[in-house]
Specification:
This protein has 15 helices and 13 strands. The protein is of the alpha/beta class. The strands form four sheets. Strands 6-7-9-11-12-13 form a six-stranded parallel sheet. The radius of gyration is 22 Å and the shape is globular. It binds manganese (II) ion (MN). Manganese (II) ion binds next to loops.
C-alpha cells in the first residue's frame, strides 16, 4: 500500500507546532550544536527489517493472525517500503532463504529500489527440514555426524550466498540450532570441529567484499548444549575462519542477566563485532519489541557501541549490521517494527549525547557516583524531539504509528490481502 507524500505532509502539518515547541525546549537543555550533530547522525542510521517478522508471529502454543499479512516476497518488500516511508529509518530488508527466494531477481530489485530499500544480510536456514529435502537436520546440520548431511547444509549456505549476491547483499548470517538435548548425546569437540570445517567451506565461497556473521544462542531448540552457544564460541569460530568472519550479537540469545554491553565492548575492541539483532526479553529469547522491557540496557549497549566504534574510527551507519530480529504474537507486526526502530534510534541518540571524554576522566578518578550520574543524565533526557526532527527533515512522519492508524493501513491491507493471509516466517 503506497503512502502518498501529501498524506505525510498533512499529518506533519497537524503536529508541527507541538513538535517545534518540544524541540526548542530540548535545544535549551542540550544546545543547538549537540542537537544538530545527533539529528544528522540519526538521518543516516538505518535498521534492516527482517522479512520473517512482517507477518503475525506465534509461539509453539499457537498463532493469532491479525489479517493482511504479506503473502509473497513482493508484499513483504511493499510492507518494508511502507515502514521506510513512515520513518525513513528502515531502508533495508534482511531475507530468509528459502522462505524468500525471488522468482524474478530484476523485478524484485526494481521494486526494492522504488521503495528506496537495500538488501541487508541474507539468512540461511538449517534449523528445520524443508519439503522435499533429502536429509534431515534433526540431529544438527553443520555439526552432523553424517558427512552427507553436512554437505547438504554447506551447499544450502553457499546457495544463500549466491541468492544474496544477485540482490546486492554483502553479508550472510549463519545461525545454527545445532547442539544436543541430553548429556551423552554429543561429543563437544567433534561437534565444534565438524562445524568449523563446514563453516570453512562456506567461508571459502564468500565474495571478496562479503562478511560472514556467526550468530550464537545459549539454548533452544537444543536444551543441553548449543554448538555456537555464546560469544566466546562464536569468537573462536570467527577468529579461526578469518578476517571476513564476525560475531553477531542477538540480544535475546544470552543467559539471564548477561552483561551484553561488556560483551559488545570486548568484541569491538578485537574488531570482531559484525552486527546486531535487536529485540527485548524478560525471561529467555522472548523476541519482544526492542526497548520494551530493558531500555536502560539498550542504552548502555549503545553507549559501548558508540564509544567503541569511535575509538576504532568506524562509521556508525555502515560498519556494523543493524537488524531487528523479533516476532509478534499480540501486536500488529508493522506497528511493532515501527516501535522497535524508534527505541533503537532513541538509545543511539542517548548514547551520542554522552560526553565520553568527561566520562573517561571520571573513571580515571574512580568517581563512581559522578560517572553513574553522567550516564543516567543522558538516559533520562527526553530526546524524542530529535528523532521527530530527523524524520521531519527526511520527509517521514512526525508520528509514524499515529499516521499508520490515521490512515487505517491495517484495514486496507486486510481488504487487499484477506483476513487469513499467511506470511512465511517465524
Ligand atoms: Mn537472531
Amino acid at each position: 500500500m503506497p503512502l502518498e507524500p501529501y498524506q505525510i505532509a498533512a499529518h506533519n502539518q497537524q503536529g508541527e507546532a507541538t513538535h517545534r515547541r518540544r524541540y526548542e525546549f530540548l535545544l535549551e537543555e542540550i544546545g543547538e550544536s549537540a542537537a544538530e550533530a545527533i539529528v544528522t547522525k540519526l538521518g543516516t542510521f538505518q535498521i534492516a527489517i527482517p522479512s520473517w517478522a512482517l507477518g503475525t508471529g506465534g509461539t509453539r502454543f499457537g498463532r493469532f493472525p491479525g489479517g493482511g499479512d504479506p503473502r509473497s516476497l513482493e508484499e513483504k518488500i511493499e510492507d518494508v517500503g511502507l515502514l521506510h516511508a513512515l520513518n525513513r529509518g528502515s531502508g533495508a530488508i534482511s531475507l530468509h532463504i528459502p522462505w524468500d527466494i525471488p522468482k524474478d531477481v530484476d523485478a524484485i530489485m526494481r521494486l526494492a529500489a522504488r521503495h528506496g530499500l537495500a538488501f541487508d544480510a541474507v539468512n540461511s536456514n538449517t534449523f528445520q527440514d524443508q519439503t522435499g529435502q533429502a536429509l534431515s537436520y534433526k540431529f544438527g546440520s553443520l555439526q552432523h555426524t553424517n558427512a552427507a548431511v553436512r554437505r547438504q547444509a554447506i551447499e544450502h549456505n553457499i546457495d544463500v550466498i549466491r541468492h544474496g549476491e544477485a540482490l546486492g547483499s554483502k553479508s550472510i548470517t549463519v545461525w545454527l540450532s545445532d547442539g544436543s538435548c541430553f548429556p551423552g548425546q554429543l561429543n563437544f569437540r567433534k561437534a565444534f570441529q565438524r562445524t568449523l570445517e563446514s563453516l570453512q567451506e562456506i567461508y571459502a565461497a564468500l565474495p571478496p567484499d562479503w562478511k560472514m556473521f556467526v550468530e550464537y544462542k545459549a539454548y533452544e531448540p537444543n536444551f543441553y548444549s548449543t554448538t555456537v552457544g555464546d560469544w566466546g564460541s562464536s569468537y573462536l569460530y570467527a577468529s579461526k575462519l578469518g578476517s571476513k568472519a564476525y560475531t553477531l550479537v542477538d540480544l535475546g540469545h544470552h543467559l539471564p542477566n548477561a552483561n551484553i554491553e561488556q560483551i559488545v565492548s570486548l568484541l569491538l575492541m578485537e574488531g570482531k563485532l559484525g552486527g546486531f539483532h535487536f529485540n527485548d526479553s524478560k525471561y529467555g529469547d522472548d523476541d519482544l519489541t526492542a526497548g520494551s522491557i530493558k531500555p536502560y540496557q539498550l542504552f548502555l549497549i549503545f553507549n559501548e557501541l558508540v564509544e567503541g566504534m569511535d575509538a576504532r574510527g568506524m562509521n556508525h551507519a555502515t560498519d556494523l549490521g543493524w537488524m531487528i530480529d523479533a516476532s509478534h504474537n499480540v501486536k500488529d507486526p508493522l506497528e511493532d517494527l515501527l516501535q522497535s526502530v524508534e527505541a533503537i534510534k532513541l538509545a543511539y541518540a542517548q548514547a551520542l549525547l554522552v560526553d565520553h571524554v568527561a566520562l573517561e576522566n571520571l573513571r580515571e578518578q574512580n568517581d563512581v557516583s559522578a560517572a553513574q550520574e553522567l550516564l543516567q543524565n543522558a538516559f533520562r533526557t527526553d530526546l524524542r524531539p530529535l528523532l521527530a526532527e530527523a524524520r521531519l527533515r527526511a520527509g517521514a512522519a512526525l508520528n509514524p504509528v499515529g499516521l499508520f492508524r490515521e490512515l487505517n493501513i491495517r484495514q486496507k491491507l486486510i481488504e487487499t490481502r484477506g483476513l487469513k493471509a499467511v506470511a512465511t516466517g517465524l
